[in-house]
Every structure is written in C-alpha cells, then in structure tokens.
Automatic annotation (TrEMBL), chain A:
Entry GO terms, CC: plasma membrane
Compartments (UniProt record): Cell membrane; Membrane
Main localization (coarse): membrane
Keyword Nucleotide-binding: no
Organism: Aeromicrobium piscarium
Pfam families the UniProt entry points to: Proton_antipo_M (PF00361)
Name used for this protein in its record: Monovalent cation/H+ antiporter subunit D family protein
Membrane topology: Multi-pass membrane protein
Keyword tags: Cell membrane, Membrane, Transmembrane, Transmembrane helix
Automatic annotation (TrEMBL), chain B:
Membrane topology reported for the UniProt record: Multi-pass membrane protein
InterPro entries referenced in this protein's UniProt entry, alphabetically: CPA3_Na-H_Antiporter_D, NADH_UbQ_OxRdtase, ND/Mrp_TM
GO terms assigned for molecular function: NADH dehydrogenase (ubiquinone) activity
Similarity annotation: Belongs to the CPA3 antiporters (TC 2.A.63) subunit D family.
Compartments where found: Cell membrane; Membrane
Source lineage: Bacteria, Bacillati, Actinomycetota, Actinomycetes, Propionibacteriales
Protein name: Sodium:proton antiporter
Native species: Aeromicrobium piscarium
TM helices/strands, residue ranges: 32-56, 77-97, 117-147, 159-178, 198-217, 229-254, 260-283, 295-314, 326-348, 368-391, 403-424, 445-468
Signal peptide as annotated in the record: none
UniProt entry keywords in alphabetical sequence: Cell membrane, Membrane, Transmembrane, Transmembrane helix
A Pfam match: Proton_antipo_M
NADH:quinone oxidoreductase/Mrp antiporter transmembrane domain sequence ranges: 124-415
Automatic annotation (TrEMBL), chain C:
InterPro entries per record: NUOK/Mnh_C1-like (IPR039428)
Predominant localisation class: membrane
Keywords: Membrane, Transmembrane, Transmembrane helix
Organism: Aeromicrobium piscarium
Transmembrane regions listed in the UniProt entry: 6-25, 32-51, 63-82
Keyword Transmembrane among record annotations: yes
Entry's Gene Ontology cellular component terms: membrane
Protein's name according to its UniProt entry: Na+/H+ antiporter subunit C
Entries under Gene3D superfamilies matching the protein: 1.10.287.3510
Endpoints of the signal sequence: none
Domain of life assignment: Bacteria
Localisation: Membrane
Cell inner membrane listed as a keyword: no
Topology relative to the membrane: Multi-pass membrane protein
Amino acid sequence: MTPEASVDYSIVPLLMLLTSLIPAGIIFCLREDQVRWRTTLNLAGALAKVGFVVALIPPVVAGDKLRASMPWVPGVDLVLVTDAFSLFFVALSAGLWLVTTIYAIGYLEGAPNRSRFFGFFSLCVTATTGIALAGNLITFLLFFEMLTLVTYPLVAHRGTKDALDGARTYLAYTLGGGVVLLAGVVWLTVLVGPVEFTAGGVEAVAELAADRPGVTTAIGALLLIGMSVKAAIVPLHGWLPVAMVAPAPVSALLHAVAVVKAGAFGIVRVVHDLFGLSVAGDLGLLPVLAAFAGFTIVYGSIRALAQDDLKKRLAYSTISQLSYVALGAALVAPLATAGALVHIVHQGMMKITLFFCAGLFAEVQGISKISQLTGVGRRMPLTAAAFTVGSLGMIGLPPLAGFVSKWPLALGGLDAGTAWVLPVLIVSTLLNAAYFLPVVYALWRPEPDEQATAASAGPPRRRLEAPAALLWPAVVTAAMVLFMGVAAGWTYSPWSLAEMIAEGSYR
Amino acid sequence: MNYPALLPALVLLPLLLAAVTALVPRGSRRTAGAAAASTTGALGIGVVALIGGGSWELALAGWEAPLGITLRADGTSTAFLALVAVVGTAVTVYAAAEPSLAGGPDFWPLWLVLWAGLNGVVVAGDLFTIYVMLELVTIAAVALVALGGRSAASPALRYLFVGVVGSLLFLLAVALVYAETGTLDLPQATAALEPGPVLTSILALTLLGMGTKMALFPLHAWLPVAHPAAPAAVSAVLSALVIKAGVIVLWRIWFGIADGTAAVQVLGVAAGIAGAVAVFWGGAMALRSSRLKPIVAYSTVAQVGYFAIVLSLADGSAAGWSGGVILVLAHGLAKAAMFLAAGTLAFAYGTDRLSRLHGAISHTPMTVAALAIAGISLAGLPPTFGFVAKWQLLVATIEQGEWWWIGVLLLGGLLTFGYTAAMVRATFNRPGDDEVPAPYPVPAILAVVPFILAIASVAFGVFSAGLVDLLAEDPTARGRP
Amino acid sequence: MTVVDLALIAGPAIVVIGLVGHLLVGDLLRRIVALNVASGGVMMVLLAIAARGEAPDPVPQALVLTGIVIMAAVTGVALALARRVDAVTDESEGR
C-alpha cells in the first residue's frame, strides 16, 4: 500500500484457484471407494492453498500485488489480483477449507455419494477463492454465480424432500440476486468501461457520480441489492434458515466463509473499492445500507431467540452477525471499517466452531434441539468447551475475537457521528447473550437422573469423546478464536491486517 | 488460404454420400453412414479452419450474379458452418453408437441430405438457392421426425405443413424482391431495394415465413409436438441446427434491407414483442412439463424468442450482432447437449418422465452433469458461452437505450434456470424410496458426447475473446447505419 | 387492367384462400390440396412477374419450374405421411 508498491504479472493467482479446481476435477472421476485418493487430493489441495497464502502475506503487506489476466468479452478482461483485502479473504477461506475438509472426511465416513460431495466442496472453495481474488466486477460476478451453482448440490446433498426444497429456495434467492447484480455490472461497464477494484474507490466511477448522480445511485443500489441476497440482509435473508438442511460441514462452510461471506465481502468491495466511501456517502447509499444492516442485526437476534433447533438458532445468529460487516462497511470511520473487515475473519472462525460443535452433538449424541442439550457437557467436555468459547466470542466478551471486532465497530460508530449504532450493538449483544448463554448453561448443567442412568448403562468410556476428525477441527478453531483475540496486536494478526486494509480506504 | 472451390463441396459431397449410403444394404448402412457423415463433418471443420477470418466467394461454373448461382462464406457464415460441423459430428458419433436413438438405418441418408441442406442455406448467395436449400432441409427433417415410430407420423406431417407454408411465404417475398430489383443475388438485391411498401411487404413475408420455420410465438405450436416425437439424435439436430436455418435467413435479409421507416420499425417491435412473449411462454410451459423432451422443446420455443429480439438489438450495434450470432452458437451447442442427454436418460430409464428418473444423478452422473451445464449455458450464467452472448446483448440494450429488453433477457434467464433445476432436481436419489429404478446399462459414448458438447459450451465461453472480435469485424455486423 | 395485373392480384388472393383453407379444414387430404392451391397462387405471381416486360423473363419461369418440382415432392411426402397417420388412427379406433 506504499506508493512504490509494485504490481507483478504472475501466474500465482491462477495457481491458487487451481489448487482446489484440479482436485475437484479429479475427485469427480474417482470411484466411491477410493477414499485414500480422495482424502490425499483434498488435503494436498487445501495445504497447497494455505501454503500460497502464507508465502504471500509478507510481500502483500509490503504492498506488492500479483496480477493475472486474460481477455474475455470485448473490452473486458478476467483479472485476478492478490491485493491485501483479497488475500485477507483467501486466507480465511483456505484455512477454514483445510479444517472443514478434515471435519467433512470424518463426518461423511461411510456415507454415499462422497465423490460428488467432495468434488463440489472443492469447487465451492474455488469459487470463494475466485471471489476473493477477482480484480474487477465481472470476474467477481463470474465466481459469485459459480458459487451459487456449486453450492446447490451440497445443500441438496441428502436428496430428501426438505433438502431439495431448501436447495430450491436457496437457488431462487441467490440466482435472483445474481440477476440484479448482473444488471448493475452491465450498466456500469457500458457507462465507464471495465473498472478494477482500487482501494479508496475508482476515479471513473467518481466522475460518473458527479455527472449523473441518479444513474450512479441506481447502479450502486443494484450492486448492493445483488450482494445483499447472499449476505442475507433482511428482507433478502429467507434462504438461509431453510438451507440449514445441508450436512453440517456444508452449513459450517456456508455460514463461515462461502456464501454469506461472499456477499459481505462483495458489499465491502463495492462500497470501498469501487465507489469509495465519500462517493457512496454523497450518493446516499451508505445511510440506507447502514439502516438495513442495523435492522438486520436486531431482527436476526430476536428471531434466533425463538429457535429451539440448534442449527436454526445458529442460522439466525449468522444473519445478525453478518450485518455487522455491512454496517461497518457503511460507516465513514477508519475504526468501523477495520472492525467490519476483521469481523469477516472473526465471525467465520467463531461460527465455524459453533457449527462444528452442533454437528458433533448431532452425530455423537443425536441431539439437534437445544432443549435436549442438558448435561451434554459432562459427556463431551471438549466439544462443549469449544462451543462455549465460540458463544462467548459471539457475544463479544474480551479477550475473545468477537470483542476485537465489536469494540472498534462501536467506537467507529461514534466517530462517524452515527450514535444510533451504539444502542443497536448493545441491544444485539444483550440478545446474543440471551440466546447463547442458555445453551452454554444447559451444556454444563448436571444432567437429569434418568439420562445419567442411560449414559452409565451405555458402552464403556472411549478414549476420546468423539471421532478425532470431528473433534479436533472444532478445538483448533475455538483455540483460534481465543488466539485472534489475545494476539490482536501481532503484526500479522487479522486485526492488524484489517487496520492496514482499512487505511487504504481513507487515502 | 483461399479455396472457394470447396464451397460447393459442402453441399454436393453430403448429397452424393447420401445417395451412396441409400444404396448400401440396410445391414451395413450404419457403418457406411457414419463414415460418410464423419467425412462431411471433417470437410466442414476443414473449410472453417481454412476460411479462418477471411471470406470466400464463388460463382458456380463461372456464371456471375445475377444470372448464375453464387456461393459465399463470410465471418458469420463461418460461425454457422462451424456450429453445423461440430454439432453434426457429435450427433453422428452419438447416432452411430446406438441405432435405436437415431431411428434405424434410414437415419443416415436422410441425415446427410439434411446436412447438405444446412450447409447450403449458410453458403447460398442468392435468394432462390436459399429457398431450394430450405426445402431440402424441411423435407429431410420431416422424414427424420417420421423415423420416431408410428406415433411420430402425425407430428411429422404437421411439421411438413408448417415448413411448406413458411417456404411459400418466403417464395412470395423472393418474387417481390425479383420484381423490384431484377436480381436474386442477396447483396445486389439488398443494395437495390428502395424503401417503400414493397420493401415492408418483403420483410413482413420473410418474418412470417421464417417465423413459422423457426417456431416464433405465436407460430410455435408445432415445435413442442414435432421435436420430442423424433428420435433423440434427430431432436438434437432439429433444435440445435434446423431452427437456425430459419434464423440465419431472416437475419441476412432483415439486416440487409431493413431501413428506419416507421412501418419497418413496427415490424421490428412486433417481432420483439412476439419474442418476449415467447421467452416467457416457452419458459413457463417448460416449467409445467413433466417430461424431459417436452421441457427441452419448450426451452427452444423460449430461446427462439431471443432470436427475434435480436432484430431490434443488433440494428446498428456491433455488440448486438456478435451477441446474436454467439447466442445462436451457444444455443446450438447447449441444446444439442440437452437433447442428447435427455435421449440418453430416456434410453437408460425407458421413459423421460421426471418422476421416474430419481437416482439418475448417481447412476448416470455424467449425463445429468451435461444436462445441468447445458442449462447453465442456456440460462446465461458466467463463464459459459451463453453468458458471453447475453452480456453482448445486454450491452447492446443499454447502448441503444432500449432498456426494456433487459428485463426479458434477465427474467428469461431465470426461467431457463428454473426448468433446468427442475430437471436436475428430479434426478436426486430420494432416501426412503424402496424402489429406485435401475437404469438399463448405457454405452459410455452416449454419456460422453453430450458431456463434451456441454463442456464445449463452457470452454468456448471462457475463451471467446477472439471469436467476438472476428464477428465484430464482419461487414454484416453494422447492419444499416 | 391487363392479364398481368389480374394475375398479380389474383395470385396473392389464391395464396390467402389456400392458406386459410389449409388452416380451417381438418381432413388431411384436403389440407394437402389446399397447400397446393396456395402454392399455385405463388407460381401465378412469379409468372405474372415474368410476363411484365416485352420479352418474357426466363428467370421467374425457371423458378416456377423448380417450385413445381419441389411442391410435387412435398405433396408426395405429405401423402405418404397422411396414409400412415390414417393407418395409426384406424388401428387405435379398431382396438
């Protein structure tokens, strides 16, 4: 981000896509029983992607970018760039893909149609990586639609009527959003030509906004509405709770990195790197976005309170938490921006922990309702502990990761002169506590007598409370939630990176 | 490279081979026919490769226009020739693999005649040759539909009636052109025609005639009957290629002579409205259908609507023109893939009822994938060929300020995706169902061919930059300034 | 009004009559005949165009010859199909 920063033409961004695209292609061709091959490919791809990210962080922080492009439709190139923000998102998706893959291997052991599942799983990550690396709107759109399509078989994976219906609803919403987005992208491209995302906003868009503010506002609204469907901003959130029928690893991935994050990431890209904060503010887009986001935060939390199904409660919680990102993106204050950015990573890490745990409860104990969770903490202490860390993080308790994103958001809200943000955040925090604490409490409460007898009559205690491939990912991500909170001051911590990226929007 | 002498071979070679194939005993006709059709395909691909970005012209036997017959191939013709060659070759391989999906040994000579006619429509330089070639296509196509068994006789006859009515209307237009200009050569005639009621009548007759042949709403009712009645390989050719013969003739004449007079504009708008209705009607009917082949057929009705809308969008817009041509190519590839995949599924399950296909995604994943990918390209989602076409058309709508087409283009895409999803959804295995229908084992080639076509419609989309430039440089692209 | 003018007016009229008849009648044989009537109208227009000048123009006459051949072929195919349709109908009614 320094003036002497360089842009190098490189094949690396393409290779980062291929680390998951190639395994996907091969996995589709594997037979159901070739488990070892599939596992090796999956893990090799995930590790390679993480390797790329780790290797790229220092140069990108120093301001160097790598860029790959090829001509596509007339006047428009497909562009992949590793700028700081894209690497930030790739890092999240690569890291969580690795742990989710391990989890999914354990979760689906012996289940049918695994080649199909893991093939689309890898494609899903490819699409997310593409969204992160997309250097211009049309490349973004390409991967945004691809993500919609490759997630459909994952949501519908079980093939039950619920699964198919949920998948259909999901598809209807997200494709509808995609169409709105496409309209905005075409309109903008015809008026100003293909524009590449630039920290602080694109000059050509600013000129257009000065010339034809009405048209520019309409384009901005189309783009933001298109993104908002995936980001599950009320009233476009209806698909998310029904998509919960997917297998647990899919829900984990959808809620933490893939679909909803793609929407949130897109909102930030459009507001900060396409329009630029001041232009978007002048056009009146920001207050509207902030208002919808603020409403969604409270609405999601209230709806979460009423759910007894654990995954449903987590789904509504996602709706609420995701809008923190949109809210932060809409506030003109460096702290709020950084808070929004870092919440992309923090929410992902916390939510994936919670979904891993929910999957563990369902797999090991057969429990999907909150009312049945009483006493499970005794039988599954590590899982319950991980769930507790995730919940407390969501509430925003220091020193966990959630605090590091909520606190700057609140301060940023005050900086930006939008004091109403503060009560929204406080109400949301209280509601978070109201729907997470009872779960935590139930987990650790001594179990009722009859269940105790049932448990003691069960098989002898295993060495581990759950299959290792399911348990360790949850424990690791919970540890990360703690680590990201405690080590927020470290140079390469998500918070430090988010601060650095946010600076770019104010130059 | 300039070998215009190859142009007549595009028509004459398949005709000759058709005659030879018809004389081969029935028992070995499949082998002979497959070899003959492959030769025709190789010739087509070879000619396309030789033409490259150039344009060829040949006056047959040295008789120049207006007296002689002139054959021409420009950028747009090359694109159509390429489509015919690629889809034709794919269908040949598919039909050779399983005779029951082609309608038996009689398929081969008829298919070669049809191929000759399609090549002929594309390279014909004068209106009357176009008429003759269109009739050749119609008769061969009708005979091919009739191969679909006893129940196909009635749809085939209806198809013949419609085709002939369309041809007669077109012949009337040709007569008017000759009366006005004294020539049948397309470029000479279009240059000589003056604006006026005769020109409007010519356009109206062509629109009606070709609208009938390409099943433009409300002249579409025959298509959802005829296309599904035919054997799978034939359905693919009908939807992917035969419809396009009508489209290219309509476009050639329209963009050659349409002027800005009010009457012509009314015609253009009427065609556009008919197209828009077709998009929604076809999409809605496809959504309501419960069998694969009717869904794919109604999908064609909807897509033909776009070809009519192109009349408004491509007038004076290079983006609209290249978008239109690419839409034809994308539709050809995707629709061929879809019909062939539907045929494979119907072959494996003994029916194409959606309610009998559950489990297909596990038993025949490649075929279902072909169906899905082809649908994605038809719906115009990136990065497919269909998206490139839709993008160009959207750019044209905004450039021309005709923003009302945007809604049709976008909602039509959603409808397309809706029925694609309905087809894919039906193939999921429902746990709890005791009785998952066991498919009949399918020769691998029946799954591979549609899959390759579907993959091609993605690959062409990703690497479309050169093609778009080629089409944009085409002289026809500018229409009338 | 010359014979040519008359033919130019009557030709399209015959086309319309033929087409309307084709659409309105149900019997397959009649529909085929109606189609031939319409085609006769088109040929009439072409012949009238050929006869407009001093010397007869051979080009439209050649077109008419080709058109007649094509129409004969079409009629043949149509009749064959119509027979098959009738056979199928009889069979299904007989059951």
